[in-house]
Design a protein that fits this description.
Blueprint lengths: L5 H4 L12 H15 L8 E5 L6 H12 L1 E7 L5 H17 L4 E7 L6 H13 L4 E5 L7 H4 L2 E5 L5 H15 L5 H11 L3 H14 L1 H9 L7 H10 L3 H7 L7 H15 L3 H24 L4 H14 L24 H17 L4 H17 L1 H11 L3 H8 L2 H85 L1
Parallel strand pairs: 1-4, 1-5, 2-3, 3-4
Helix pairs in contact: 4-5, 7-8, 7-9, 8-9, 9-10, 11-12, 12-15, 13-14, 14-15, 16-17, 16-19, 17-18, 18-20, 19-20
Bound molecules: adenosine-5'-triphosphate.
Adenosine-5'-triphosphate binds next to helix 3 and helix 9.
C-alpha cells in the first residue's frame, strides 16, 4: 500500500504548529473572532496571499478546527464554483439556526478566477453570512472586484531555517534520519516551499541515501557522475576511461573523492586495489601542485591518472557495480535559476573563446579554480567574458569572494575605459598635431618656395660671391702655407 503523503500526514492541526507566520495568523484569528462576536468584520472575505507551501491552506484547516467551523473547500478557477458558493451562502444561516456547525468557505486559487466568476463571487461576498477565505499566490492577479471586497493577509516566504525546522519535526515523528547535508540541500532547493521540501524528504527517506543523492543532486547535471563512474569502472581501456568522465560537471578533486569512495567495490584483489589507489594518490599530488602553483594544466594529468590509471589497475568485478557518493560529499546541485546562469556563462565562453560545449564545460571548471585562487586573474575574465555579478557568484559559489572579484573587475573596466578615453585623447591629439603639421608643412612648403626663390637668387649671388670666397679661403691657406 502506498504510504500516506507526508504533506497531509504532517500538516499542522493547530495554529501554534504553523511555522513562522505569526503576524498572518494573528490577523486571521482577529478576523474570524469578529465573525463569532456576532459583529461580522467589515470585509467579509479574506485573501491569504503568499508563495506556495507557506501555510495558507494549513491555516484555514487549523482555524476551522480550533473555532469549530466546517470547511467547504472549492476551487476558484472552477467555473461552477460560484453556483455552489451561492448554495452554501443561502443554506448557511439556516444550518446555523438548526444548530449545525458553521461553515467556512475556502476558495483556493483565487488568482486563477475567470472574470465572469469573479463578478458572481463579488456579489456573493456582499451577501455572505459566513466567512469566505481565499488563497492566492499572486495577490494582484485576483480580480479587482474580488480584491476590493477582501481583507488581505500576507504570508511570508519561509526561510531555509523554517523549512529545516519543519523537516526535522517530521524526521523525529518518523524516527528517521538523513545526512545533514542532504537535509540542507532539500531545504535549499525548496526555495521556501514547505510542500516541495516535505515531498523531497519523503522521496529521499523511502528511497535510501544513494537514491537521495541521485534524486536530489544529479537530476539536472550534464552527465550524472553515477553514469560516468559506472562507465569508468566497466572498462580497462585507458582511452574509454578518460572519455567516461568527460562532461561531468565536477572539479577534479571532487571526482577523485567519488572514485576513491568506490574503488574498493570495483577490484577484489588487494594488489589491484593498491595499484588503483597508487594512481589516485599520484593524481592527488598533481591536484595539490596545480592548486599551489596555479598551473591548472596539471589537472589533465591528474584526471588521466584517476581515470585511465585506475581503469588499468587490475581485474574488476563483473556485472553491475553500485556507485556510492563519497562520505564528504559536497552536493553539486543546481536549481533552475542556477542552471540558466550556467548556460549563459557557457554561451559566453563558447562565443568569446570560440569553443564547443564540452570544451566550454572544461573551461568553466578551470575558471572555478581560478576564481577560487586567483581573484585578480578572475577579474580579468569577468571583463573579458562580460560576466555579471550573478554569474560571478555562480562561478565562485561564494557571495563574498564574488564581490571581491566583481570590485576588481569594475576597477579593470574603469581602467580600460580610462585607457580608451586616454587613447582617444592621444589619438585626437596626434590627429590634431598631424593636421597642424600638414597645415604647417603646406605653409612651409609655400614659404619654402618663396624662400627658395629668394634663396635661389641669394644663392646665385652667393655662388658668385662664394667662389672667390672659397678661392680666397684657399688662397689664404695657401698664402699661409706659402707664408709658412
Ligand atoms: N508555515 C508552515 N509551518 C508548517 N508547515 C507548513 C507551513 N507551510 C506549509 N507547511 C506544510 O507544507 C504543506 C503545504 O502547505 P499548505 O498547503 O498550507 O501550503 P499553501 O501555502 O496553501 O500553498 P499553495 O499556495 O500551493 O496552496 C503542508 O503539508 C504543510 O504541513
Amino acid at each position: 500500500m502506498p504510504e500516506v503523503p507526508w504533506v497531509e500526514k504532517y500538516r499542522p492541526r493547530r495554529l501554534r504548529d504553523v511555522i513562522n507566520q505569526t503576524k498572518a495568523l494573528e490577523q486571521v484569528k482577529a478576523w474570524i473572532e469578529a465573525w463569532l462576536s456576532g459583529n461580522p468584520p467589515k470585509k467579509k472575505a479574506l485573501i491569504l496571499a503568499g508563495p506556495p507551501g507557506s501555510g495558507k491552506t494549513t491555516t484555514v484547516y487549523a482555524i476551522a478546527r480550533e473555532y469549530g467551523f466546517e470547511i467547504i473547500e472549492l476551487n476558484a478557477s472552477d467555473d461552477r464554483t460560484y453556483e455552489k458558493v451561492e448554495r452554501y451562502v443561502q443554506a448557511a444561516y439556516t444550518l446555523d439556526i438548526l444548530g449545525k456547525r458553521r461553515k467556512l468557505i475556502f476558495l483556493d486559487e483565487a488568482d486563477n478566477m475567470e472574470p465572469s466568476g469573479a463578478r458572481e463571487i463579488a456579489k456573493l461576498i456582499d451577501r455572505a453570512r459566513n466567512p469566505i477565505v481565499m488563497g492566492a499566490n499572486r495577490y494582484w492577479e485576483v480580480p479587482r472586484e474580488v480584491r476590493n471586497k477582501a481583507q488581505i493577509v500576507q504570508y511570508k516566504r519561509l526561510t531555509q531555517r523554517d523549512i529545516i525546522k519543519g523537516l526535522v519535526r517530521i524526521l523525529h515523528a518518523e524516527g528517521k534520519t538523513v545526512p545533514k547535508d542532504i537535509l540542507y540541500e532539500i531545504a535549499k532547493r525548496a526555495n521556501g516551499d514547505m510542500r516541495a521540501a516535505i515531498n523531497d524528504l519523503q522521496t529521499v527517506v523511502s528511497g535510501g541515501a544513494g537514491d537521495a543523492v541521485e534524486v536530489l543532486a544529479y537530476r539536472d547535471t550534464e552527465k550524472s557522475v553515477f553514469q560516468a563512474l559506472a562507465q569508468l569502472f566497466a572498462t580497462d581501456n585507458a582511452k574509454k576511461a578518460r572519455m567516461a568522465v568527460l562532461g561531468v560537471d565536477m572539479f577534479p578533486h571532487e571526482l577523485l573523492e567519488w572514485i576513491d569512495e568506490n574503488l574498493p567495490y570495483v577490484y577484489y584483489r588487494p594488489g589491484d586495489i593498491a595499484k588503483a589507489y597508487e594512481a589516485l594518490s599520484r593524481a592527488d599530488i598533481y591536484l595539490s601542485r596545480a592548486q599551489r602553483t596555479g598551473n591548472y594544466g596539471l589537472w589533465k594529468y591528474a584526471t588521466d591518472l584517476m581515470t585511465a590509471g585506475v581503469a588499468v589497475a587490475g581485474v574488476k568485478k563483473k556485472g553491475f557495480v553500485r556507485i556510492y557518493p563519497p562520505k564528504t560529499i559536497k552536493l553539486l546541485t543546481e536549481s533552475k535559476a542556477e542552471r540558466s546562469l550556467r548556460d549563459s556563462i557557457l554561451k559566453k565562453i563558447m562565443k568569446e573563446m570560440h569553443m564547443a560545449k564540452p570544451e566550454a564545460l572544461e573551461t568553466l571548471n578551470v575558471l572555478r579554480a581560478i576564481f577560487e585562487y586567483n581573484p585578480d586573474m578572475a577579474a580579468h575574465f569577468v571583463v573579458y567574458l562580460d560576466l555579471d555579478l550573478k554569474e560571478v557568484e555562480f562561478i565562485t559559489g561564494d557571495a563574498e569572494r564574488a564581490r571581491t572579484i566583481w570590485g576588481k573587475s569594475m576597477n579593470i573596466e574603469k581602467k580600460l575605459k580610462e585607457r580608451s578615453r586616454l587613447e582617444e585623447h592621444v589619438r585626437a591629439a596626434v590627429e590634431e598635431r598631424r593636421e597642424e603639421k600638414a597645415v604647417e608643412e603646406e605653409s612651409e612648403e609655400s614659404e619654402e618656395e618663396e624662400v627658395s626663390e629668394e634663396e635661389l637668387q641669394r644663392a646665385e649671388e652667393e655662388e658668385r660671391v662664394d667662389k672667390p670666397k672659397k678661392k680666397g679661403k684657399q688662397a689664404t691657406l695657401f698664402d699661409f702655407l706659402g707664408k709658412s
